[in-house]
Amino acid sequence: MTEALADFTLHRPESLESLAILRRAVPEARLIAGGTDLLPNLRRGLVDAPALIDLTALPDFAEIEPLAQGALRLGAGLRLADLARAPELAGPRQAVAEAARGVAGPAHRNAATLGGNLCQDTRCLYYNQSDWWRAANGYCLKYRGDTCHVAPQGKRCRAAFASDLAAPLIALGAEVALAGPVGERRLPLADLYRDDGADHLALAPGEVLIAVHLPPFAGLSAYEKARQRRAIDFPIAGVGAALARVTGGWRLSLAVTGTDSRPVAIAGIDDALDLPLSDDMLARIDKAVQKQVTPMRSTMISSHYRRLAASALARRLAQRLAEQARDAR
Amino acid sequence: MNAPARTATRAAGTRTPLVDGIEKVTGRARFTADLAGDAAVARILRSPVAHGVIRRIDTTAAEALPGVLAVVTGADCAHPFGVLPIAMNEYPMARDRVRYRGEPVAAVAAVDAATAARALKAIELQIDPLPAYFTATEARAPDAVLLHDDKPGNVEREVHHVFGDPDAGLAEADLVRTATFTCAEINHAQMEPHAAVAEWVPGREELIFHSVTQVPFYTHKHLARCLEMDPAKIRLVKPFVGGGFGSRTETLNFEIIAGLLARRTGGRVALVLSREETLISHRGRPETEVTLALGMRADGRLTACKAEVVMRGGAYAGYGIVTILYAGALLHGLYDLPNIRYDGYRVYANLPPCGAMRGHGTVDVRHAFETLVDRMAHELDLDPFTVRRANLLEAPLFTPNGLMVNSYGLPDCLDRVEAASGWKERRGKLGPGRGLGMACSHYVSGAAKPVHWTGEPHAVVALRLDFDGAVTALTGAPEIGQGSSTMVAISVADTLGIDVGRVRVVCGDSATVPKDNGAYSSRITFMVGNAAIGAARNLRTELAQAAAAKLEADPADIDCAGEVFSVRGSAQSQLTWAEVVAAALAVDGPITVKGSFTTPEKAQGGGHRGGAVGSTMGFSYAAQVVEATVDVDLGRITVDRVWVALDCGFAINPLAVEGQIEGSVWMGMGQALMEETRYAEGLPLHASLLEYRVPTIADSPPIEVHIVESVDPLGPFGAKEAGEGALSGFPPALAAAVADAIGLDMDALPLSPDRVLEALVAKRRAAQRAKRREDA
User: Fold this and answer.
1) CATH architecture of A59-214
2) Minimal Cα distance from B701: which residue of A?
3) What residue in B sits closest to A306 (Cα-Cα)?
4) Is the whole model's pTM more than 0.95, yes or no?
């Protein structure tokens, strides 16, 4: 590796209080847990960080905690490999384990964490390149430049958010616990994200994601991603789906990742669906996804393909879950 | 696996783990980058501009930085280099003009990586841009600026070869079809990135040079040339190498740069390239457009072929002339097809230079050929196997373009994969979205005429025998993971009748081993294998004389098997290896012998211009069947299973042959399914192993390997090449399987999900339009 890692100071706080003190003292420090996202970006000169704060010594950071009435708290420091095999995620919430299993390769999953996956940087062909490359291209809107090479007329960065886990967690109604200078707050996971590839996390200064809360859930869920290879690749499009009984029918929740600068919770699907899903309903799902995702030329594969793949996956997942629900009855 | 059954317990033909495998799997093997130690850190400044005139390079500020040991630029080397003596047009660092983004313009050596990085930033570079061309069409436009003043139209080489009467052949055909296939540029993506460690020995004014090269001899020559050194003052060492596939089959700019920096610093310099830089160094398979016309009779007999091939070769010559010649030459030699017209155009463009890559020159053309044959078979309602069988050669023969074919195991290959895949019973009955496809391929066993014609033998192996009783084989053949050292050990052991473990193979150090042309064109088994056998025979003669003297027998009657010497026909008179070695050494001390191999003149190709390319001692032949499933919602292809048979003449090491065949299939699968380079105005978008998609083990199908042995009359133990022949059959076999599965004909490679889905959408729309017209 000829792209040398610059020198930095590493801090490893053992409590939220000392973390808060550190963040005030070293506001330019970056947070690190597994490092699978940050370290390559550091080497490529995408991050300027004189200090790193290692979160892995925080209390309960890597715990799975069952809460009242079947709710679940997932510590942000849980490794993706832990999530992939957690018995708590083997049943109705298996979409989360499926998504964890689908991330990168085994070595990445042994290091990468839940919090890091949800807070990962957005990605773009014009951004995830070496400094020489970006300099030769005049840099870009996301970092050090003023043009978005994906959408040059646009005023904002179109880098795509590629967390696999975000999609099923949003479909399952997850909330995130954020610890900040003024204490802890809870936020629907979907609201953690902004539609701006250069500034996609709605975290207040000094805030850190410490856990994910999953509400009680007794339905069915699944995650599937489109990618070229069966391992390593980020989602070209990833769809998380959850199907649960509600008064008067079934409620289907869909969220798409990999296509936009934030995960897209698909709106406009009826709250109380009849099973089996009619062809008409499936066509509506397909159309809703195609309409609501806006992939751009930020990956090697065409944006048109990503849109079609997202809708095809959504349609198939909806049908599969509906069939499973019917079989289970 | 389906290795041939063996009767005798001989070294040749026995499944033998690679002799350098233990070091690799235990991590003890030291690769070039591992040798850096405390060497100065070197880095290259690369052009940000695709095409332009260098107005100024100012290195003053960089040189003044504390910790900077040396800065070099194009001004420090006025000698172009290049693998072909007739086409050397590349400088280690650009001198007046840059011709692709990423071309080296300067380089630094510093005490550490951070200082080297700062030094690069401190170099002032001013380039006036020229129009840049990223496609062959743009580069060939009439008003295009020339990349090289001596190459009008930006065409590096045009080839026009006509054999037989293609027009008459097409006129005789019952079916003539023409199609144009576009195959994306791909890269070797070998595991080990490029690296060189160069040490200048002050006082002696010598250079000790370690590199990842497949061609230590060429690199040695080019270092001497570019550094204006006596080659005797250079020692070229090739440590363990992590794969080549052609990426290092020619001297590369970073190697010369490392040498220049070492001399300038007067010490050790390590130049370790990043993956991005390794991909920019490129030398991969060019983007190729193949327009093909084939004529076929109703019984499947091929009557004629016309092929026009345009390759986008990148900014410099490299192997380009050879590649464009191979593409035409290897239209011959697989089938009985006397009427062939070939028009090839190798075009310059402002992109990293292409070069040799596994299956050099033939893969994209073979893809087009086999795919069109498959479509025409379908149209004529013929089984694809029937069509191949209607066009078989009968060895021995010379092809119309003068290629020598002495052995031809293709018929057996066809039988084997047809039976193993259950082709007859299963095809058409696999259910929706699933299909079977097949294709054939072949490849040379070494170029019969090397690019550096010296008049010397093609290969020389030396053997040493000393008091310890070990046989040391000295060979310049670069072991790059392909198993060449093991092949040498087996060939020597088998010929002498001793254990493979008694043979110690030393390769890749110019201080000790005889020169070898290198690891390319699948030449080593055939050429170095024969040389090794020759050397071992010479040693055997000396040992037989010593044994005969002790046993009072005729040397001609002495046998050695299992390290025991005996007189043929007599059970009593036996001597151990140690006894015979002692007796032999008593004659005149430690023994050194050598063996050599030279290709006969008749193997060196036709007399036409460019006729040497494609010429070889023998071809490997392969047939394969691919079973695939297509997900029509996502356009995604899953390769379910592969059956492949390769005629390698004789499997000296069946274990290594199986590995090579699996690797060929797998590499063909990468090209067929997903691998491609992509540039944004000449900047490589693919320059990482995340974006350059090599299949993972999770994508790998079960591969059933069958080894066919036609026993070539000139090959070592009858062997031919085994490392490339099966590659070019995979992409067309997959395309045929997709056509069989969903009735979709694709004209582009790779068959990536977006291409498949787009083709499906287009096909559905066309069907709808047709239906509407019908309804109206």
Assistant:
1) 2-Layer Sandwich (3.30)
2) A230
3) B754
4) yes
